[in-house]
Amino acid sequence: MANQISRDEFRGYDGGDDYGIADGFDTYCARALVFRYSGWQDDRGSHRNIGSCRFALDINLLARASGSFSEPRAGRRRPMKMNIPRWIVPLLWIMAALDIVNGIEMFFFPSAWFFKLVPGVPETGAYNMHLVMDGGTFFLAVGVGLVFAAINPRRNAIAVVVAAVAGVMHSALHIYSHAAGLLSTEHLVTEVLGIYIPAILLIVISAILYSQSDETRIAAARAA
Asked: Taking the CB of residue 92, how many other CB atoms lie within 10 A of it?
């Protein structure tokens, strides 16, 4: 049987408790709850005194402890509410759709893509169906990555970085081809709209996402 008793009963006549601890912080608090347990039992089932146990619970101490654990957690959650610019998600969806459509055309309709769908492609060299289909697989992969980035830009920011690297390499190849005289400027508008501008936008989006990630980590560290 357990019952609540007063602090004075818990403490001994000499000012100390049953364990010889005087004025301990656990029992010297006005809001301490002190409990006592006693029981009687022998091997045959009859009751006999087997001793007693007393302990104290400091409510103030528990309140301070619970507050110390909850406040840092709340502080770590708040920085995650930071918003990214609204134009990023729609733009990621548009670029993902363009890459996926281009990848499907290159993989399933390589001849039509090479000769009819994209202006200026025939002047890059002879038609190679296998090479065009290979390029389609990479466009499909980049497009799917951008879909995940559009769904959750912060968590899947690495997909934007991969797409930006692909765009930069693609742009560098075309710039080199123009410098070497391998490509004419007849279809330069198509290149600017389909290659250079998307690469620049992906670089900007990557920088924004990772700069906000750094700010979130710093804010979380300060809150902790």
From this structure: 25
